[in-house]
UniProtKB/TrEMBL annotation:
Keywords: Kinase, Repeat, Serine/threonine-protein kinase, Transferase, WD repeat. This is Serine/threonine protein kinase. One of its GO terms (molecular function) is protein serine/threonine kinase activity. Pfam families: Pkinase (PF00069), WD40 (PF00400). InterPro entries: Kinase-like_dom_sf, Prot_kinase_dom, Ser/Thr_kinase_AS, WD40/YVTN_repeat-like_dom_sf, WD40_PAC1, WD40_repeat_CS, WD40_repeat_dom_sf, WD40_rpt. Residues 40-303 form the Protein kinase domain. It comes from the Bacteria. WD repeats lie at residues 393-434, 435-476, 477-518, 519-560, 561-602, 610-651, 661-689.
Length: 689
C-alpha cells in the first residue's frame, strides 16, 4: 500500500454513488461502489498506486462483521496516457485469482475471499491483517536490531519460497507490505506478507517493456526495465532490510557515482559479517550475481559460506619501533562461523537457564597443564614475522557483542547476537558452558569482584544476574523501557549501574535486585557506563556527544563534559581514578584529568585528544596498572596508548569487524571479542611500555 492516504466521507446509503479518489500523480479516479457484490461495504480508502486503489471494508454477510481489504485494479482505458521510455505503459494483472486463492492458504499470506468483476473493473477481496506494518514500526520504535532482521528473514524467506513454488512473483515487497502481528493463539510475533496487487505469474517469460511493477525504491533494477525474475523478490526483501537497519531511503543508500551500496556507512549499530554478506548478495544490482533462488539464501543462512569464503588471513601488525618489543600475539582464537539463526522467534516465555555441561561447580583449573600460552617475545626473536595463521576452535557463540574476564583471569564471558552468554577457559579455550535466557543480543556482560556473579544486559530490555559456577539465573531486573546497552558493577560488588536506549541510567542493588535510583540528564541514548575505583563516581557516555559524571549515591550530576563531535560509545576510568577516557564516533579518544583531591570530583580540563583510528571508536579499557589504554573501533583495529605521554604503543590488526576489549585483571593479557565471530587473546611481554 502507498503510505499516502486519502480520507473522505462515505455514503453507504446511496449504492449508486461512486467513490472518487483524486490522485495528483496519475489523475485517476476509483469506480468502486460503496457496497461491492452486495456484501463488502467500503469504510475508507487506505491507499493508491498507479495500478490500484485499496480500501478498508467490512463483510456484511458475517455476523461478526469482520474487516477485509478491497483492491480495485485500473482498467487499460484509465491509463492510456501513461508512457515509459517512449512506450505505452500497460497496467498488468497477470496473476490468475485461482493462483492467489491457492497461496492464500498459507498462514502468513492473506486469504483471498472473493474475486469480482464490476463495471469493467477487477476487484480482489482479501483477509484483513491486524498489526503494524514495518514502516510504521520503524517510525515508532527506531531502527531494527540485527536480531529482528534475522527474524524477518527466517520467517519471510520460506513464505517467498512458497510463493515461487506456485510459479508466482510478489513484485512489490517493501516495509509497508509486511505486517507484524501476534501469531494467533500465541504470544509470539509473526510477519505476514500482504498486498499481492502486482503479483506476477512466473511462467519463465519476461514481462514486456511496457509493464512496470513494484515500488521504485525497493524494486530490482530489472523491474524498471520491464523485466522480472523470482530473485527480484529477493532483491526487494534485502533492500527492505537495509532500510529497516538504517532508516535511510534506499535511493540514498546506493552511491551512484561509485556504483555500489554504501549502506554500512549509515548503520546506527554494527551488524555481523555473516548477515552483512548475505544482505550484500541479496541486493546485487545484476540479477545474475544475486542469489538465484530463495533456497540458496536459506542454505547460506543455515550452513554459512563455502570454505573459500572463510579462509583466514594472516593477522597484520603495525607497531612502533619500540612498541614491537612489548607486544606478542597469543595464538588462540575462540569461535567460528555464525550458527544457524533460529527458525522461529525467540520465545518470550521464561525458562530456567541451564549451564551446559552441568556440574556442581566449574573446575577451571582441571585442564591439561601442558596447554600453555606462547612465551613473551623479545625484540631479537623475530617471531612476529613468522606468525602462522591463527587457530580456530569450533564453538556456537557466533558474533561477539560483549566480553568480560573473571578477576582471576581464568574465565572469559562473551555475549552474542543469539542471546547466549558463553563461558570459556582462557588458557585452553575450552568451553565451560552456556547461559541462555535473553530474548535478544547480549549488549554487555560484567563479572563481580569476587568472580562468582555475572551480570548481563540485552536488547530485550532486561538485566540478568547469574551465578557463574552453578549456571543458575539468580534474578532478572525489569525497569528499562528499551535496550540496555551497558552494565557495570561497583568495586564493592553491591551495586549495578545500567544505561539504556531509553536515555536513563539506573542503579540497582545487586543482592536484592531492587531499583535504587534513576538518573536523568542525557538527551539521547546512553551507550556506556563506568564506576570509579573508589565507587563514588559514575561516568556515562551518550549519543548526545557528552560524558556526564555523577555522584550516584545522591543522584547528583557533577559535571557534563563536551568536546566530542559524535556519539560517545565508551567511557573508562583509570585504576588510580585520575584519568577518564572517552571514545567517540568522531574517531577520537579524549583523556580527561579528574581532580580526586576535592570532595566533589570535577574535571579540570581535557588533558589530550588521541587521534589515530580511522573508524568509530566504541571500546576502551585501561590495563590493570593504569599505564596503558586499549581502544577498539568498528573496523576491528585495536590500538594501545601510553597514558603518561599519550603516545601510540602499537596497532593490532587481527580482526575484520567491530571489536570489544577487556584486560585479564592480572595484567598479562588483552582479550578482544569481535563481530567477525572470533575471540582473540593478545599476550604482553614483561618489557614495560
Amino acid at each position: 500500500m502507498n503510505p499516502r492516504i486519502n480520507s473522505h466521507s462515505q455514503n453507504p446509503e446511496d449504492p449508486d454513488k461512486k467513490i472518487v479518489i483524486k490522485n495528483e500523480t496519475i489523475g485517476g479516479i476509483s469506480n468502486c461502489p460503496p457496497i461491492l457484490k452486495e456484501r463488502y461495504q467500503v469504510i475508507k480508502p487506505l491507499g493508491e498506486s498507479v495500478w490500484s486503489h485499496t480500501f478498508l471494508a467490512i463483510d456484511q454477510d458475517k455476523p461478526s462483521k469482520p474487516p477485509c481489504i478491497i483492491k480495485e485494479f485500473v482498467s487499460l482505458d484509465d491509463r492510456k496516457d501513461l508512457v515509459f521510455q517512449g512506450q505505452e505503459v500497460i497496467p498488468t494483472f497477470s496473476c490468475n485469482p485461482v493462483q492467489l486463492d491457492k497461496i492464500g492458504k498459507h498462514p502468513q499470506i492473506p486469504e483471498l475471499l472473493a474475486s469480482v468483476e464490476h463495471d469493467g473493473h477487477r476487484y480482489l477481496v482479501q483477509e484483513y491483517i491486524e498489526g503494524r506494518d514495518l514502516a510504521t514500526e520503524l517510525i515508532e520504535d527506531g531502527v531494527f536490531s540485527e536480531h529482528k532482521i534475522w527474524q524477518i528473514l527466517n520467517q519471510l524467506l520460506p513464505v517467498l519460497e512458497f510463493i515461487h513454488d506456485h510459479h508466482l512473483i510478489h513484485g512489490d515487497i517493501k516495509p509497508e507490505n509486511i505486517i507484524c502481528r501476534t501469531k494467533p493463539g500465541t504470544n509470539t510475533q509473526e510477519f505476514v506478507l500482504v498486498d499481492f496487487g502486482v503479483t506476477i505469474s512466473a511462467t519463465g517469460d519476461l514481462l514486456s517493456i511496457g509493464s512496470i511493477n513494484g515500488s521504485a525504491e525497493y524494486a530490482a533494477p530489472e523491474q524498471t526495465k520491464g523485466k522480472v525474475y523470482p530473485n527480484s523478490d529477493i532483491y526487494s526483501l534485502g533492500v527492505t532490510c537495509l532500510y529497516l537497519l538504517t532508516m535511510v531511503s534506499p535511493f540514498e543508500l546506493f552511491d551512484i557515482k561509485a556504483d555500489k551500496w554504501a549502506w554500512r556507512d549509515y548503520l546506527k549499530h554494527p551488524i555481523s559479517r555473516h548477515l552483512g554478506r548475505i544482505l550484500d548478495k541479496m541486493v546485487q544490482r545484476d540479477h545474475r550475481q544475486r542469489y538465484q533462488s530463495v533456497a540458496e539464501v536459506i542454505k547460506d543462512i543455515k550452513y554459512g559460506p563455502t570454505p573459500v569464503d572463510v579462509i583466514l588471513q594472516k593477522p597484520r601488525w603495525t607497531v612502533t619501533a619500540w612498541g614491537a618489543a612489548a607486544i606478542a600475539l597469543l595464538s588462540l582464537v575462540i569461535s567460528s562461523r555464525l550458527p544457524s539463526p533460529q527458525t522461529q522467534p525467540l520465545s518470550s516465555s521464561t525458562n530456567i537457564p541451564k549451564l551446559e555441561p552441568r556440574s556442581p561447580q566449574l573446575k577451571v583449573d582441571d585442564f591439561d597443564s601442558s596447554i600453555s600460552t606462547l612465551p613473551p617475545i623479545s625484540p631479537s626473536t623475530g617471531i612476529i614475522d613468522r606468525l602462522s595463521p591463527l587457530q580456530t576452535l569450533a564453538t556456537t557463540s557466533g558474533p561477539v557483542w560483549s566480553i568480560a574476564a573473571s578477576p582471576n583471569g581464568r574465565i572469559i564471558a562473551s555475549g552474542s547476537t543469539n542471546g547466549n552468554i558463553q563461558l570459556l577457559h582462557l588458557r585452553s579455550g575450552k568451553k565451560l558452558g552456556k547461559l541462555s535466557g535473553h530474548d535478544g543480543p547480549v549488549w554487555s556482560v560484567a563479572v563481580s569482584p569476587d568472580g562468582r556473579t555475572l551480570v548481563s544486559s540485552s536488547s530485550d530490555s532486561t538485566i540478568k544476574i547469574w551465578n557463574i559456577y552453578s549456571g543458575t539465573l539468580k534474578n532478572t531486573l525489569y525497569g528499562h523501557l528499551k535496550d540496555v546497552f551497558s552494565v557495570a558493577i561497583s568495586p564493592d560488588g553491591n551495586t549495578i549501574a545500567s544505561v539504556s536506549k531509553d536515555k536513563t541510567i539506573k542503579l540497582w542493588d545487586l543482592n536484592s535486585g531492587l531499583l535504587l535510583y534513576t538518573l536523568y540528564g542525557h538527551l539521547d541514548e546512553v551507550q556506556s557506563v563506568a564506576f570509579s575505583t573508589d565507587g563514588q563516581t559514575l561516568a556515562s557516555g551518550s549519543n548526545d556527544g557528552t560524558v556526564k559524571l555523577w555522584d550516584w549515591r545522591y543522584g547528583r550530576l557533577l559535571r557534563t563534559l563536551r568536546g566530542h563531535d559524535g556519539p560517545v560509545w565508551s567511557v573508562a576510568i583509570s585504576p588510580d581514578g585520575k584519568t577518564l577516557a572517552s571514545g567517540s564516533w568522531d574517531n577520537t579518544i579524549k583523556l580527561w584529568d579528574l581532580d580526586s583531591n576535592r570532595p566533589r570530583r570535577v574535571v579540570r580540563r581535557s588533558q589530550r585528544t588521541l587521534m589515530g583510528h580511522s573508524e568509530k571508536v566504541q571500546s576502551l579499557e585501561f590495563s590493570p596498572d593504569g599505564k596503558t589504554l586499549a581502544s577498539g573501533d568498528f573496523g576491528g583495529t585495536i590500538k594501545l596508548w601510553k597514558i603518561d605521554t599519550g603516545g601510540l604503543v602499537g596497532t593490532l590488526k587481527g580482526h575484520s569487524a567491530w571489536v570489544n576489549l577487556t584486560f585479564d585483571p592480572r595484567g598479562k593479557t588483552l582479550i578482544s571479542g569481535s563481530f567477525d565471530d572470533t575471540i582473540k587473546v593478545w599476550r604482553f611481554s614483561p618489557y614495560r611500555f
